Amino acid sequence: MAIFRTVVEAGSFRSAAKMLGLSPSVVSHHVSQLEQHLQTALLYRSTRKISLTEDGAELFAASQKMIEAANAGLEAIQRRSDQPSGRLRVAAAGAVFESPPYIDHLIAFSKRYTQVDLTISFSDQKIELIGSTFDVALRIGFLEDSQYKARKLCELERVIIASPDYLAGRAMPKTLEDLASWDWIKLSQFPVARQMASRSGEVPAFDPKVSIEVDSVAALHQMVARGLGLAAVPRFLVKDQLQTGELIALTPNWDLMAPGVFAVWPNNVSADSLTLRFVHFLADRLSGT
């Protein structure tokens, strides 16, 4: 239809061919194929000029609307690449991205791209992107093989914590095995043994005693603070409480694995999409942290 429209506007197959960078025979072939498909003549041809049949005039008007719509779409995408706009839906791990300094990066993105409307769901539960309305997920932990693409944004240093009340009357542990009989508060998304893996990948030999299981890092944090047991959490979440003594860091001879923070998105996302602009923005800000 675009070639047909060009032929009509140029007034001849030869002129249209020159405008399109094609040979006259190729241009004529496309118009003939269109006529064959529609089973009607679109043009009256002579050696010097062409004119439209009634059906041709109707198709020419439709082709003009088609080209205008296509150009409008291309221009909209170009404007978006210059100054992104639209809606971006993010599923963010609440344990990390609800709190400074990580929420500051989401705020910075919103301030930088004022024409982007953000929808953010903060949850400690894993949200599957396929079948949902989300464009990208920000996850913590240890990625499994999946049909998504992912980029590691940073790592989270973790620390084993307990309250002074819980530690009262207990000797400070020297090894991880010393904590085997203590009351562990477990995050339901991960087995305790996996949470306690070392940086080298070694998993502790003992089976920790789980007294409480929750699906929220915020709830786990509060239960530890109230003296119900111990847990391993990202250090940045408890930094202030460790400094004031409200919580105590336990330092057995064990180097905890630092889980990664990942951006995850469907593998069919285009390179110039709003999703990847968001991922690259976070990656640049979190580089080296």
Description of the structure:
The protein is of the alpha/beta class and 289 residues long. It has 3 domains: 81 residues, Winged helix-like DNA-binding domain superfamily/Winged helix DNA-binding domain (Arc Repressor Mutant, subunit A, Orthogonal Bundle), CATH 1.10.10; 98 residues, D-Maltodextrin-Binding Protein, domain 2 (3-Layer(aba) Sandwich), CATH 3.40.190; 93 residues, D-Maltodextrin-Binding Protein, domain 2. The chain has 11 helices and 12 strands. It has a 5-stranded mixed beta sheet. The protein has a 3-stranded antiparallel beta sheet with strand order 10-7-11. A hairpin with a 4-residue loop joins strand 1 and strand 2. The longest helix is centred in the first third of the chain and has 29 residues. The model has no long low-confidence stretch (mean pLDDT 87).
